[in-house]
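Subject: Tyrosine--tRNA ligase structure
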Amino acid sequence: MTTYDSELLRLLNQRGHVHQVTDAAGLDALAARQTVTGYVGFDPTAPSLHIGNLASIMLLRRLQQAGHRPIVIMGGGTAKVGDPSGKDETRQMLTEEVLASNIASIKDSFRKILRFDDSETGALLINNDEWLSELGYVELLRDVGPHFTINRMLTFDSVKLRLDREQPLTFLEFNYMIMQAYDYLKLSRDYGCQLQLGGSDQWGNIVNGIELTRRMDGKEVFGVTAPLITRADGQKMGKSVSGAVWLNEEQLPSYDFWQYWRNTDDRDVGRFLKLFTDLPLDEIARLEALEGSEINDAKVILADEVTKLVRGEDAAASARATAEQTFAGGGKGEDLPTLDVPPEGVRIGVALTDLGFTKSNGEAKRKIAEGAVKLDDMAIADPGYLIELPSGSEARLSLGKKRHGILRGA
């Protein structure tokens, strides 16, 4: 493993956060002698971020833990354009009102994970719409445009992917890399920012910002990317059977969030403990060395620690208690998703879909045919089974061993 003088790069490296660094020696020397201001950008395209974004938020947390200042950039301006990186299709245009609502909803996630105060290392949250919407088009073309060549822009993966697949890439999206590069220049000028962090898919955008800042202002700035987080089964981090694993409670109940981490593949436990918790490395080494059924203890700790970080201690304790009641005691648990059953009853396939366990009634039928569905531990084989419950009574509906919901008679 590479050795570093700065606490920042040592911490990032030991925890598995480093994929690429633009000038490791230069950044290491800078971070060892002074406080570094670094940023990560997040486009508010939904009311919540998801755990795919959590890896980037943890970069900012590590930055602050190492004694430096993190900046969260809310991409209220860049989100109007849409980042083509990793996308096959043009992103849906979002209105000013939707973007403002999304930003307001997302802010709380950062306030749980980062420390915001007036100290030298206190985090800042800034909306890049403050400057991007003020830019004149001709001004941008004259001042920034000469530093980008079409030849170079065509070599970036975000562009090549679309062209190779013969998918349309709009002129609007083509400008995204210029706008993000301008963000870095602006943050360097106004906040003394010298570091941009992000996922590995942002490497091209980060390099553009570094080069623009050097060419226009003669300043040396740096970039660090984290590896793309994939699970041991090859799936991209952040997705579950039911869709995205959202950070906000409104988009995903804490029990489901906790349970996602509890269901981590044995092979991923140690890596995820390093990336997404603050547990000491020697304790993580002990936990990932557990074998057999004991590895489940490590998974519970992982679920507890990540849920505490993202949702708070009360949410973690409640989710764990619900899990214990559901799996150990046969109880129903207060945090399980619930569905009110009308007096006329509800078909079991509809109930599965309404609870979010299946994406369609057709998928529900297939799960029932596979024998994966139980009502109060009784296997249900009839896809047309009608669930009827007296008012005030409850039943537990299960899909496999890991998805449980409560049905309540209305």
